[in-house]
Amino acid sequence: MSTILKRKRSDFAKEIESTGKEEEDLFVDVPMDEDDDDSDGDDSDLEDDSDDEQLEEEMTDSEEGAVSSGESQDSEENGDSAGDGGDDVGEEDRSDGDDEDDVAEQETSKPKSRGKLARLTWQLRPRRSHLQSSVKLDNETAPSQLTPADDNSGESGAGTSTGKEVDEYEFDSSDEEDIRNTVGNIPMEWYDDYPHIGYDVRGQMILRPPKRDELEEFLEKMDNPDYWRTVHDKMTGRDIVLPDEDVAFIQRIQDGRYPETTFDPYEPWIDFFTQEKMIHPVTRRPEHKRSFIPSLLEKEKVSKMLHSIRMGWMKPRQEKKKDEDDRPKFYDIWSNESQVELTRRHHAHIAAPKERLPGHEESYRPPPEYLPTEEEIKEWKEAHPEDRKMDFLPQTFDCFRKVPAYRDYVRERFERCLDLYLCPRQRKMRVQVQPEDLLPKLPKPKDLQPFPTTQAVVYLGHRSYVRTISVDPTGQWLVSGSDDETVRFWEVSSGRCMKKLDMEGTVRCVAWCPNPAVCLVAVSVEQRVHLVNPGLGDKLVVSDTDRLLEAYEEPEEAKTSPLVEWSEAPEEAKEKGFRLCLKHFKPTKQIAWHGKGDYFGTVVPDGGHSSVLIHQLSKRRSQTPFKKSKGLVQTISFHPSRPYFFVATQRFVRVYNLLKQELTKKLLTTAKWISSIAIHPGGDNVLVGSYDCRLSWFDMDLSVKPYKTLRHHRQAIRHVCYHRRYPLFASSGDDGLVIVCHGQVYNDLLQNAQIVPVKILRGHEVTNSLGVLACEFHPSQPWLFSSGADGTVRLFT
């Protein structure tokens, strides 16, 4: 409220207060209407606000002058105050006309002279009513002109508004208590092109507040601690700070909790109607009268139905069916097709393929490389229409308007119609396969233990390639042969070399007799095969072996084979352990013992049809089981329990029945050159390694083709082997790796073998492109021996 208005209110309050004490009875006789009574009640509020001490000290002199002055002086003050109020309050000009009307009414009802105080009171009434209207107008405009911060400000101070509180419910509904913009619930984008954003309760425009630029917005964001809880009101254009209650309300909604803190979702619920059986009903309200009176609406419906039946518009079901039968019938020429076939045809519809989109060659100005030369044009014209790559010749034009009509358009449309009508269609089913489904579900390697994982012992002594190794049936001793023309016997547990034999050539193969009652080792050196008693282990077994060999008596009519010559070792050689010597006609490559230890076979690669020889130790005789060569023999092996003999050539593995002397099976490998084979202790599975990095598992009960083919070696595979007791097999190659796999064979013929690679053993060094040349499992422990081109033998446990 301005200072002028406060000055006026204090003037009138002082005058009334000073004169009211002298003659209070005069106010009773002054005629006043209902509006004046209301204004008197408002003056009490004005009188309370006029107690400001500072304004009383400043306006004391003016109050005394106002009491002593006459009507002329009062009129001058009225004019001055009106002028001053017009400067401070923008709406005071409107009340000038109303003040003149009030003065006119007061002049007509001027009371009789009852003294000086009565006349003064009558003169002050116009000024009093004028100030009341100004104060009311100011209070009405206050809500729309003040900011939310001004509305909450205190009532004290020189620059504050009047102490009268504004009732916001005088102009707002209960649903829109905080809305000052009366445009309603409309999109505020309609006012984007106007300088205002709506109208207040008095119809005045609400000007659009100035917008902040990005810099001001950034500063506001940095400086204002309540920026995070400030929202923009599009209706009024103001920024409103949310109170703590609203912020907590929003946070509870974001957290997925109940908005109201007082709401208890788990409060006990009482089923009022089914908890207890009550004698009296819950409600005893009597039924309405209309429930006993027939419905008038139903009466009208029934009357309409009766009228339609009488007029023949509504017919019973039987008559309606008769009328339908009397109608003319139209037969479907495709009635022989059932609805099921039609539905099937509808679902089996195949959409026609779309035409090929035009390319660069069909442009009216194609690139030069798409334009044919004269020779190509000549070839195109001479070719048959079905042999032409394109049905047209690309042409070029300067502009699009020079392009003539396409003369083959009708023909192409006709051919397209023929394709749609006559060409059969086929739907190609695409199977959606997940990559994870293609991979077999294998168990974890830690669940398949035990298997060799760590290098335990290194056997040092050889100076060249160690091509072959073998373990005795007890698992205590190990024999190895090398290109340094030596054979060494090792103790497995300690790695100590127990014996060394010098040979007259490169040692190709060593094989310990699988019979634990015999201590005998076969050594292949060039054309000779030596049978050696190393004298290790149990002395009784060693002596029994010598007695067994000495007990042989040569028959009178002995049939000697021209291919193999049996002979006993000289006395000097016997002291070293040599017992027998078998001299072949060609160099030997491999030795394979039978499971009982009486028979063993040798491979002579250059022997032709005599590449395979079988020797009987007890009778000291040899024989050639094949009369004709089936290929270059690589390796041989005996079946562990049946009279089957396996012969591996370069690409095939043949299985022969020794009793029936016939071919039983021929395993078809995918390898180009077989290097080694191994027979499972059960006898139904064969492991084949090749020089082209393939490791094939054959299930002879399943097929003659490989059941699994593994390619985990990067270079040639030199040797493969099975464990006698554990479901393990291993392969060694020129990449210097020994890969151990878990191969579980089930007794159930309906379940195939499970192959899981479990460990890669490293330790050997690649020398001259050669890695691990041989590997062998321990007969009873999950241990693995390996020998390599680096001249070492290693034990992995």
Describe the overall structure.
This protein has 797 residues and is an alpha+beta fold. It folds into 3 domains: 149 residues, no CATH class; 83 residues, no CATH class; 343 residues, YVTN repeat-like/Quinoprotein amine dehydrogenase (Methylamine Dehydrogenase, Chain H, 7 Propeller), CATH 2.130.10.10. It contains 19 helices and 33 strands. The strands form 9 sheets. Strands 10-11-12-14-13 form a 5-stranded antiparallel sheet. It has a 4-stranded antiparallel sheet with strand order 5-33-32-31, with no helix packed on it. Strand 17 and strand 18 form a beta hairpin. Helix 1 packs across helix 5. The longest helix has 30 residues. It is elongated. This is Ribosome biogenesis protein BOP1 homolog. Keywords: Nucleus, Repeat, Ribosome biogenesis, rRNA processing, WD repeat. Component of the PeBoW complex, which is required for maturation of 28S and 5.8S ribosomal RNAs and formation of the 60S ribosome. Required for maturation of ribosomal RNAs and formation of the large ribosomal subunit.
